[in-house]
Design goal:
By secondary structure, the chain is α+β, with helices and mostly antiparallel strands. The protein is built from 2 helices and 5 strands. Strand 1 and strand 2 form a beta hairpin. Bound molecules: adenosine monophosphate.
């Protein structure tokens, strides 16, 4: 996807603060963090949203969430995973991404 922001990050055309990478996924710090820990986890392959991603990639992302939570020190106290989807979900970047948020207590529902 030539004009996709997160595809450009995967290709290294836009810099990112990378925290994890393997053949399938990339994780990097959100540029406008909403919590002390705010990491975006994306598949390297382009999927518009959770509605398109295949089960194998999604399952791998779940495995990586656990690894990141442990490595980032937020597993013990807990964290939030957010997958904004579509217009009403206010998804601004049309490349599937998990927001992984932690490091403080976060009210629910969000504002
Ligand atoms: P969403 O609104 O769920 O689509 O989330 C998109 C997220 O991408 C927002 O939290 C932005 O702060 C974040 N973001 C946008 N551009 C960048 C970038 N270049 N590097 C890191 N995060 C970004």
């Amino acid at each position: 996807m030539d004009n996709c922001l997160f595809c450009k990050i995967v290709r290294g055309e836009i810099p990112s603060s990378k925290v994890y990478e393997d053949d399938t996924v990339l994780a990097f710090r959100d540029i406008e963090p909403q919590a002390p820990v705010h990491v975006l986890l994306i598949p390297k392959e382009h999927f518009d949203s959770i509605l398109e991603v295949d089960e194998k990639t999604f399952a791998h992302m779940k495995t990586v969430v656990k690894k990141l939570a442990v490595d980032l020190g937020i597993a013990e106290n807990g964290f939030r995973v957010v997958i904004n989807t579509g217009r009403d979900g206010q998804q601004s970047v049309k490349h599937l991404h998990f927001h992984i948020l932690g490091g403080r207590s976060m009210q629910w529902p969000p504002g």
